[in-house]
Specification:
Elements: E1 2-8, H1 19-30, E2 34-40, H2 46-56, E3 60-64, H3 67-83, E4 88-91, H4 93-97, H5 99-104, E5 110-112, H6 117-128, E6 141-143, E7 175-178, E8 181-182, H7 192-203, E9 210-211, H8 214-227, E10 232-235, H9 244-257, E11 262-266, H10 273-282, E12 284-292, H11 296-302, H12 309-321, E13 325-332, H13 339-352, E14 356-361, H14 369-377, H15 403-425, H16 430-446
Parallel strand pairs: 1-2, 1-3, 3-4, 4-5, 7-10, 10-11, 11-12, 12-13, 13-14
Antiparallel strand pairs: 5-6, 8-9
Amino acid sequence: MRVLFLEVDTESEWAVASLGPGFLAAYLRAHGHEAALLRVGLGTDAPPMVAAVREAAPDLVGVSLTTRQWQRARALLGALRRESNVPVVVGGLHPTFSPEDCLAAEGVDFACLGEGEGALLELVQALEAGGPWPDRPIANIMAKGGARPPLRPPFAPIDALPFTARDMLDERWGVAHVSTQRGCPFPCTYCGARMFDQLYAEAGGPAYGRRRSVGNVLEELRALRAAGPLNYVIFLDDTFTIHHPWVFEFCRAYAAEFAIPFSLHARVETVNERLLGALATAGCRHIVYGVESGSERVRREIMLRSATNQRFRDVFRWTREAGIMATANYMMGTPGETLAEMEETIALHHELQPADFGYFVFYPYPGTALFQTCLEKGWLPEDWRERPAVHSRSILRLPGVTPEGIEGIYARWTEIRITATRKRAGNAPDAALREAEDGLRAHAALG
């Protein structure tokens, strides 16, 4: 059977494609099926997309979706259904936590809840045999008009999964994106990754969190190096530095065999000077830290993050001293946060002095604890399902803070970004600086 995965771009066409289809394609191919990728770029509207799908002649279309991708994907899949009866399955964070909304849309036949490898293979096999059948539900697969399915146990052992199908990721320039684990143990209220763990915990089965062995990760890197240039590795785990014995083992083995520059995501609670030194020696050149807020109250009471501002100051200093570039991510407009606390985030940013930073207005993603809070308190507008999920403005009706006030803080961050760009540019020509500033403002407006 031939499965065509659609990658629906919503922000930029240079970004790597969703990692999920890379895992799914590899698993399907290992069981004798075909898989291909069609990227639906920002400049591509429905008619050429429909024509491309028809030319590919798939037996099933699959789409991995975040909430930010859902609105565009919904319109495209509706247009596809009006021209083709090819069945469509959606998966990923948004369908997992909003399956009913997804299945109510024109052109969506199945939603995959949670992990997809075994579920998608069983769906493909059922379609080949003339199913699925209402009296034979497929675990993790919810059909249009059907009941919520049971969850199958997480795939185990995780080392038995085939390596990611790289042709599905649209990687370039010898940069590889690698995942070493699934699941996140931290209780952050704004993040959907944690909710996968909770979803499986509520099902009463094995824990969702698993990590590949160091040997298995190195084996994949060897395969990547043998297949072509391997110039840089981006580890996509939510928190690479969770289990120190694993990290130290990885650093020793990676330094001895590869020493290729790499980057990762970490939390300040999970690193110390010794670990940062080991990462730097192994080749780590960049770490992204989620700071989120400069207010300890907001982090502790609203986000369920206990790190102090002093811990952030120490870790950013240790990271610089280890020779690793640090990026900070910030959030504003979380429910219960005041404008004065948003100003505290700006003040902490100037203390931390990260090499780079990202800034986002809070959006309540379905499935997260803060989404449920916003729903219960009536802070979501009635038409929230129709509004795009963007990071430049708030859709919430919050007491004590207006959307305009949050937009003003967001605009401050954009100006801080522009000032930092001017500083890095040094003696660059004025015309080039103006072009860069216009680009930054345009990107910030998109959110």
